[in-house]
Amino acid sequence: MSNHRSRRSFIGHAAAGFSTLALSRLAQAQPAPKPALIEHAVAAPVGIEVNARPIPNFEPRDRARTRFGSLDYRGGLVLTSPHRGFGGLSGFRFLDSKGERFLAMSDQGTWFTGRIRYSGRSMTGLDDVEAAPVLNAQGRPITEKRLWYDTEALARDGDLVYVGLERVNQIMRFDFSKGGTRARGEVLPTPPGLRKLPYNKGLEALVFVPKGQPLAGTLIALSEGGFDADGNLIGFLLGGPTPGQFSVRRTDQQLISDAVLLPSGDLLILERKFSWFTGVDIRIRAIPLKSIAPGALVDGPVLFKADLGHEIDNMEGVDAHFTPEGETVLTLVSDDNFSMLQRTLLLQFALVE
User: Fold this and answer.
1) Which of 28, 57, 105, 324 is 20 to 30 A from 338 (CA-CA)?
2) Minimal CA–CA distance to 188: which of 153, 216, 215?
3) DSSP strand pairing (244-248 vs 297-298)
4) What distance in Å separates the CA atoms of residue 242 and residue 291, rounded to the nearest whole number?
5) β-strand 279-288 against 89-94: which pairing, if any?
6) Contact 322, 56 (CB under 8 A)
7) Residue 270 to residue 267: CA distance in whole angstroms
8) d(Cα 322, Cα 213) in Å, to the nearest integer?
9) Tell me: the pLDDT tens digits for 262-294?
10) In 3-state terms, what secondary structure has residue 135?
11) pLDDT tens across 49-65, in order?
12) Strand partners, 260
């Protein structure tokens, strides 16, 4: 399931059994491996234009429906840009409490900053978008070093921003008080088990635990497809009061793509699975933070599920913000793999308690 040849082979064999529409939706959402060449990286900061088309209904088959599990659909956007470096969004974090200013990251070593524009509760577009290269300690783009481009995981602790690189399974830290996206990154020490994660199924999600929560000061690192001896997904507690390794129970063949920690103490894990024959499925599970400890096997209820009957793609990022009315709003972003057959989506849901 790797390249254009694989895609052509599948289409040729499946044409007799699938409609053209079904094939298109499968191709839209498949999480294809990243290209070997860093053709979509940017070399210097640049302002870019991003266009947005609204997604009024999350389930086109039932346009009156807004409730999906524990989530209520607020709206979504299909994002496009004439700038060839836009896309591949694999990490997303808000920079303010209003759900407006954001920091995003492509899996080709590029930062994106900007602001979400709203009309009432609905997103209408993006403003002031800038792309900038992720820099190493020498002030050079990290993509200059072989394999140092697959920037998949993103976490914030105030001005400190953590980035996980999947193919080399390394973590970098940036102090955004020193120039924002112009800040230089330092490589952090990590345990051997993290560095031994699979080459293209490694470090996929990072979450920093703030003061007032169990495990405060810990950076939680989750693998996409690193398995323990029992076939469960591997996670790491870095720093904090009790560093160590734990596992997330794997069910329904799902793999982790991102996570966000809520003030309630729930760690929401975004997961996905893909098959050429069944398509793509995504879900969100709630893991109690207090259950996570070295050696623990953690699990939690599924809050939300969706498939190709809904407006999804290769969903790889999730974050939360909170409205003045006290609502928790989740924002999901997709990685289009820089493919003409996939889409960059920005979706918002209110969490219904």
Assistant:
1) 57
2) 153
3) parallel
4) 13
5) unpaired
6) no
7) 10
8) 18
9) 999 999 999 999 888 878 899 999 999 999 999
10) strand
11) 999 999 999 999 999 99
12) 268
